[in-house]
Amino acid sequence: MPNAEQWLMFLGSVVIFSVLPGPGMLYVLARSLRGGRGEGIRSVFGNTVGASVHAIAAALGLSAVLAASAEAFFIVKIVGAVYLVFLGVRALLHRTDGSELTEARPSRHGAFVQGILSEVLNPKTAIYFLAILPHFVDTGSRFAALGMLVLGLVAVVLATVADIVVALAAGAIGERLARRPRLRTGQRWTSGLVLIGLGGFLAASEA
User: Fold this and answer.
1) Which of 11, 51, 108, 192 could hold 88 in an S-S bridge, CB 3.0 to 4.6 Å?
2) pLDDT(70) > 80
3) Whole-angstrom Cα distance, residue 112 to residue 11?
4) CA dihedral 133, 135, 138, 139 (to 10 degrees)
5) Nearest to 207 by CA among 68, 79, 47
6) What is the pLDDT of residues 12-46, one digit of tens each?
7) Rounded to 5 degrees, what are φ and ψ at 189?
8) Residue 155, Cβ neighbours under 10 Å: how many?
């Protein structure tokens, strides 16, 4: 495990990455603007589960296989991009004559499940863990996998805290907009275009 100095360096680097807007945070922003704080929080915890999958994969060495295989990376990237674009287009086509928040209640698990899928299908998260974690773990130790797992989960928790702040702030704005019929169309288009933009960004990104 890292010593005290390494812990400080690790936590500092993770905090910086956590507060910088990335695909996960922008996904939470889009869902929160469209469905309010409840949907935003569910999308956050979906992201958390998805990122935890990547943390476990990094500890087991599976992420290294993904990073080393151009074909595997490309397939996961394209599937993830298509999925985000699909969510964005669906948001653009979704029309209601009532409150968005009221309409969203029957599908309480949708944002959570979609958060998991969008994060699991983001190979950039796997690359992130591979780029950060090995610098703070003795890779020659028999406990290297456990050390990477602990550090990875710490990073996930810090990212979750940052995403919750975004969900609460953007969700409050989304709830206010949803109560104003004239602003619902702009709210829906903003959410949809953010998701489509994320899909395009992911598709154009390189390993």
Assistant:
1) 192
2) no
3) 27
4) 70
5) 68
6) 989 988 888 888 888 999 889 888 899 999 999 99
7) -70, -40
8) 24
Name the residue among 111, 107, 114, 151 with its Cα closest to residue 129.
151
Contact 101, 173 (CB under 8 A): no
For residues 104-118, give the mean pLDDT.
76
Residues 6+ apart with CB under 8 A from 94: 188
Q: HEC profile for 57-74?
A: HHHHCHHHHHHHCHHHHH
The runs of H, that is alpha helices, within 61-180 are 62-68, 70-93, 100-104, 110-120, 123-132, 144-178
Q: How far is CA 184 from the centre of its chain?
A: 25
pLDDT in tens, 6-21: 888 889 989 988 888 8
Per-residue pLDDT at 92: 82
Cα gap 161→151, rounded to integer Å: 16
Torsion angles phi and psi, residue 30, rounded to 5: -65, -45
Cβ atoms 156, 51 nearer than 8 A: yes
Query: What is the value of pTM for the model shown?
Result: 0.79
Amino acid at position 63, single letter? S
